[in-house]
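Hi R.,

Here's the chain you asked about this morning:
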Amino acid sequence: MGNREHIFEEYFMTLLILIGAVAGLVMGTVGVGGGAIIIFCLATVAKFPQKMAQGTTLFIVAAPISLLAAMHHYKNGFVDIKAGLIVMASFLVFSLVGAYIGVELPNHILKPFLGVMLILMGLKLIVY
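And the predicted structure, written out as C-alpha cells:
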C-alpha cells in the first residue's frame, strides 16, 4: 500500500472512530440518536451510499453496543423491563419489514424519507 493510501486509511479509520464516539456519547447521554447519528454521519461525512449506510448502521445497532449504558440505567432504576421487552419484540418484527421495504425503495425516495423522519422527531422534541 502506498503512502497516500495509508494516510487515507488512517484518516478514514479515525473518522469512523469519531462517528462511533459521538453516537455513543449522545445515545448514552440522552438514550436516543445513536443510530440516527451513525447513519447520518456514514452517509454524509464518510460518503457511504445510502443503502450501505443503512445496512452498516443496522449491523452496528444490532450488536449489543448499548448494553453497558442500559445496565447503568437499570442499576439506577431507569429501565422498565416489561415495556422494553414489548417494544423490543415489536421492533424486531417491524425492523425486518422495514428492511424489506428499504432495500426495494430507490435512493431518491429513501434519502428524503429519512430526512423527513429526523426533522419530525427533532420538531417533536423542540415543540413539545
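The CA atoms of residues 71 and 79 lie 9 Å apart.

Let me know if you need anything else.
M.
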